[in-house]
Amino acid sequence: MPLHFSVFITVSGQKGGVAKTCTSLHLASVWAEQGKAVCVVDADRNRSALAYGIRGELPFAVVPVEAAAKATRSADVVITDGQASSDEEELRHLAVGSDLVLLPTAPKARAVELTVELAQLLRHVGVAHAVLLVKVDLRQQRAAQDARQALHSFGIPVLDTEIPLLAAFDKAENQGIPVFAATDDRGRADTRRMVGWSAYQTVAKEIECLISKPSSAVSRINATLPLSA
Ligand SMILES: Nc1ncnc2c1ncn2[C@@H]1O[C@H](COP(=O)(O)OP(=O)(O)OP(=O)(O)O)[C@@H](O)[C@H]1O
Ligand SMILES: [Mg+2]
User: 185-200 burial string, b = 16+ CB within 10 Å, else e?
Assistant: First the structure.
């Protein structure tokens, strides 16, 4: 039997509605479009990722956490759409189970505060992690800059790429498809859809660079370097 190595990414966060599911499904879509075997594990009690996939068509499997052990057996990439816990024991399990924990965060005060709390706990238990700024209103870039700076001041790594706030993501969610296929009410291609799609493509590349480093190096980077430097 050939040996098979998978990459495990968990998308997590304490704040609701901060694009955890959207991020899980779009990163999965990017890697699936590249021909990788991808599996999304829906570990959230609200089962949004499963519902998203059932509504339309996604180019990869979404499975409930209870089915994950078998379903992920031959996957190249396993992305878990998770719900954050501040329980230290659960976070330690996350450390063992993930190559990277991604923390989508909107550039808003409460979202940033909750991410700082969670990132500090993750650092304490030695989990490699990085923040992804999401729902960035392109007319209010200042808020994103402030959020980035605040996170850096706590030594928390932030990916360079930001995900813009786009109605195309809502349309894609309603249609159960990746954002690149989103259409408007009249069935015409959404004009901004590729802006959102290319942002997630760039995020996927950044993540590939991060996790290709030895885990000790990732932890060191996490602890010391602002990733946008
Ligand atoms: N970049 C974006 N621009 C605009 N809307 C977005 C963006 N990303 C996500 N959304 C929308 O925001 C809403 C919440 O996103 P999502 O369900 O992914 O968040 P979540 O963190 O998984 O929420 P929950 O805590 O309920 O699981 C959805 O309606 C989604 O379509
Ligand atoms: Mg969700």
Answer: eeeeebebbeebbebb
Task: Name the residue at shortest CA distance from atom 29 of ligand 1.
Answer: 170
Asked whether residue 229 is domain-assigned, the answer is: no
What is the average pLDDT value for the chain, to the nearest integer? 89
* In-domain check, residue 2: no
Cα of 217 vs centre of ligand 2, distance in Å, is: 30
Q: Which atom of ligand 1 is nearest to the CA of 18?
A: 21
Q: Which ligand is nearest to the CA of 19?
A: 1
The 10s digit of each residue's pLDDT in 149-206 is 999 999 999 999 999 999 999 999 999 999 999 998 888 998 899 999 999 999 999 9
- Whole-model pTM: value is 0.92
For 114-140, the pLDDT digits (tens) are 999 999 999 988 889 999 999 999 998
Q: Report CA-CA distances (Å) from 173 to 50, 125, 137, 187, 198.
A: 12, 34, 19, 15, 17
Q: How many domains does the chain have?
A: 1
Pull the structure tokens for residue 162: 């930001």
The CATH number of the domain holding residue 31 is: 3.40.50.300
Distance 47 CA to ligand 1 centre (A): 13
In this structure, which ligand is nearest to the CA of 12?
A: 1
